[in-house]
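Hi P.,

Sorry for the delay on this. The queue was packed all week, but I finally got your sequence through. Input first:
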Amino acid sequence: METEYKYRLEDRAQIRQILNDPMLDPFVNRDNLEDIRMHAVYFDTQDQDLRKAGIAYRIRHENDRITATIKWDNRVDDGLHSREEFNLVINDERFAEDPDIKAFESSDAYDVLLRAAGDKKLVKLVEMEFVRQLIKVDTGRSMSALSFDDGVIHGENGDSVILEMEVEWYHGDEDDFREVATSIAEKFDLKPENASKLQRGFAQDVSEIGESY
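Then the structure:
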């Protein structure tokens, strides 16, 4: 299960403002700030069976690491995204270019994929490139990841900008994690982002965005 808050940023200057804010001083080690170059490709059948079933199949290059991810059963409430997720490290770049569902046979994700898409071939639909700045937030009661994504989505209807903050719960007290995220959002007047990056890659405008993925 993945649980995270998403918020829109108005400009890049907010990233540095938030990262340097004294409210984070007791909870972060800024020397451990990571810069991760992300290149993500989302796959589906030609008939978009996965999309219709609310499933996302992603291959993502994270610096030198390649990960295949399946997400499904997404729930969204005022910027808080909760969904089932399964990740698989990929060592074969050929698979990253031409993936199938068989790699997930030993996971719960396989049955989800099989019901939705069967043995249909998967094709590239949406692609995105962005840089993620990530730092761990440890309050002593909860551990979470505070990250900032800056880049572009190459979607069905053209390109769109990625500029957002995420706070992902790792472990510990969930109420404490929620307080961390909402405290940052309130201080900087950030607006919740109820749409995933993949949804934004498909939508022509925000009115088309539902609650899948």
